[in-house]
Amino acid sequence: MATPAAEGALPTPEPPAPSHNIALFFHAFFKVVAIVWYWICTIVSDSFVVNFVVCIVLLALDFWTTKNITGRLLVGLRWWNEANDTGSAWRFETLPEGVRSVLPREKRFFWSAMLLSTGHWILACVIALFGISSYILVAIMGVLFNGSNLWGYFKCSREAQADLQGYINSTSNTLVQGAIKQKLSQAASRV
């Protein structure tokens, strides 16, 4: 009996990484629902307590889902805090490249949603400071929940840290080159 390789058959390609559509849905769902509720809660209910509790519960569900499920499935990252007798310690974990299979679109979606939701809550804090919204405490909690997840996953991801470092280096190089060109052109104009 001949083997497939002997018959000239192509080797079977590796199966593609599984798509995590349910995780993608819930990664966005709780973020969107918390943000929408924050902006329409006064239309739905006049009770500050009800609006506050609903928004905080939605933010907590988003935090828990992102930290415990979607981060692991969508980008292969995990972080947690361990408390012991001597204090507490942050732990960061990245699955090795051979073990994790991350789809680029899921990775982009994960990071985009994290950045956009954190940016929204920062903007909501600024707006609340100017008195447009009376729910500044909710906005602060949104920044804390989303910001801690963003920080935790950023610390886990060596790739994200390398991307940020590359961006900082290229921006600083561009600024330095621009300053040097400006000084040279000023010196040349005096001659």
Structural write-up:
The radius of gyration is 24 Å and the shape is extended. With 191 residues, it is mainly alpha-helical. 69% of the residues lie in helices and 8% in strands. The chain contains five helices and two strands.
List the SSEs and their pairings.
Elements: H1 21-44, H2 48-75, E1 77-84, E2 87-94, H3 104-129, H4 136-156, H5 158-190
Antiparallel strand pairs: 1-2
Helix pairs in contact: 1-2, 1-3, 2-4, 3-4
Features:
single chain; 191 residues; mainly alpha; two-stranded antiparallel ribbon; 5 helices; 2 strands; extended; transmembrane helix
What pattern of helices and strands is seen along the backbone? HHEEHHH
Q: Total helix count?
A: 5
Radius of gyration: 24 Å
Low-confidence stretches: none
Number of strands: 2
Q: What distance lies between the first and last C-alpha atoms, to the nearest angstrom?
A: 86 Å
- The spatial strand order of the largest sheet comes to 1-2
Whole-number average pLDDT?
A: 82
- Share in helix: 55-70%
Strand content: 5-15%
Biggest sheet features: 2 strands, antiparallel
Structural class: mainly alpha
Shape annotation: extended
